[in-house]
From TrEMBL:
Protein name: SMP-30/Gluconolactonase/LRE-like region domain-containing protein
Organism per entry: Penicillium flavigenum
Domain SMP-30/Gluconolactonase/LRE-like region residues, every copy: 149-332
Family matches, as PANTHER family: PUTATIVE (AFU_ORTHOLOGUE AFUA_1G08990)-RELATED, SMP-30_GLUCONOLACTONASE_LRE-LIKE REGION DOMAIN-CONTAINING PROTEIN-RELATED
Lineage: Eukaryota, Fungi, Dikarya, Ascomycota, Pezizomycotina
InterPro entries: 6-blade_b-propeller_TolB-like (IPR011042), Oryzine_lactonohydrolase (IPR052988), SGL (IPR013658)
Source organism superkingdom: Eukaryota
Pfam families according to UniProt: SGL (PF08450)
Length: 360
């Protein structure tokens, strides 16, 4: 694997050094050359040491043109990170295209682990109501066997179609599903006009309830829980409009908001309270967001991966040319990061950094 000339910018040196270790490095795990195959989702599947990634929107060939998706499509790819074998020499990364016809119009985006055998993916959908949209579930063993099927988890808010769901997380205690729903699909020409505000939603699969739990976003995007599960972080990437004809708004939202997750007396489901600005990303457009087990907050931005402590103080940046849209923690201090045409492997030296999502 070739190394990337990343820079580690230390805003708070002592705190960032605890994360970086003595010899951090960034290498290329997979390179798609000119194709933006490594854009979103970035879901680490520990049993197989593989990462599921969705592409950016690709231009369909003339024989695959589809007006419902503005003649675009999204690929779903699985990349394996094999154990190094020094005796066998340099290893070759295995990359699988696991896109299948049933989700051709789903225009997949973010995703998360549901359990050891299944993952959830955000289906933005298309202008054709028959195409999958909302949250769908894939069973990993069926993907491995080539017999790929999916299950629709939730498609609408009480019959009203979602705008274009973007990112999703699962609460590990009650298995409730939380997701964001900005209007990017409409501005990208793949979805009908929005019928809902730009909300954060909570869906409870046990009783089928779906609730809007946070509002007042321009474009809600990534979300994650703190290690203690008492805080929800949500990014707002409103600086990016979505239409290719509208430039980046340098003064638009590039914020991370924090909410307290509160279960009030007599209530069976939690509320989000005490909305506050947690941070403004100087690198702009904080997309995917994760916490480590120490409570530090990481976000993929246009300058790479920015890291804040739990007080909202920017402690460091892993500067990566081309920026990072989404990422995930692996094992032993490893992070996988989507750099559009490259999937990067970030190795924090010492292996002490663990993602709160998987506890690895």
């Amino acid at each position: 694997m070739a190394d990337v000339q990343a820079k580690f910018h230390k805003h708070q040196a002592s705190k960032f050094d605890e994360i970086l270790g003595a010899n951090p490095k960034v290498s290329i795990l997979a390179d798609a050359r000119d194709l933006p195959l490594y854009h979103e989702a970035c879901i680490y599947h520990a049993p197989s040491r593989s990462v599921f990634v969705t592409s950016n929107q690709l231009v369909a060939s003339s024989d695959q043109a589809n007006a419902a998706t503005a003649n675009k499509f999204v690929k779903l790819t699985r990349i394996y990170d094999p154990e190094p074998n020094l005796a066998a020499g340099p290893h070759v990364t295995k990359v699988e295209n696991i896109t299948f016809p049933a989700i051709a119009g789903a225009m997949l985006n973010g995703g998360v682990n549901l359990d050891s055998e299944s993952i959830l993916l955000c289906a933005q959908g298309s202008r054709d109501p028959k195409d999958p949209s909302g949250i769908i579930k894939l069973t990993v063993p069926s993907v491995a066997s080539g017999d790929t099927v999916f299950e629709s988890v939730i498609e609408s808010f009480h019959g009203i179609p979602f705008n274009s769901v973007n990112d999703v997380i699962v609460h590990p205690h009650d298995m409730s599903i939380w997701f964001t729903d900005p209007p990017y699909g409409f501005h990208q020409g793949i979805r009908p006009p929005p019928q809902l505000p730009n909300h954060v939603y909570r869906y409870d699969p046990k009783n089928g309830s779906v609730r809007a739990v946070a509002d007042r976003f321009t474009r809600p995007n990534g979300l994650c829980f703190s290690p203690e599960l008492d805080t929800l972080y949500v990014t707002d990437t409103g600086a990016v409009h979505g239409s290719p004809s509208v430039p980046l708004d340098q003064t638009g939202p590039s914020h991370i908001y924090a909410f307290d997750v509160v279960l009030k007396n007599g209530c069976s489901e939690p509320f989000l309270t005490n909305r506050r600005v947690f941070a403004y990303a100087p690198g702009k457009v904080p997309d995917g967001i994760k916490c480590d087990t120490r409570g530090n907050v990481y976000a993929g931005c246009t300058d790479g991966i920015e890291v804040w402590d739990r007080s909202g103080v920017l402690i460091g940046t892993v500067n990566i040319p081309g920026g990072i849209s989404n990422f995930c923690f692996g094992e032993k201090g490893i992070m996988y990061a989507c750099n559009e045409n490259k999937l990067l492997k970030v190795q924090f030296d010492g292996g002490e950094v663990k993602g709160a999502l998987l506890g690895m």
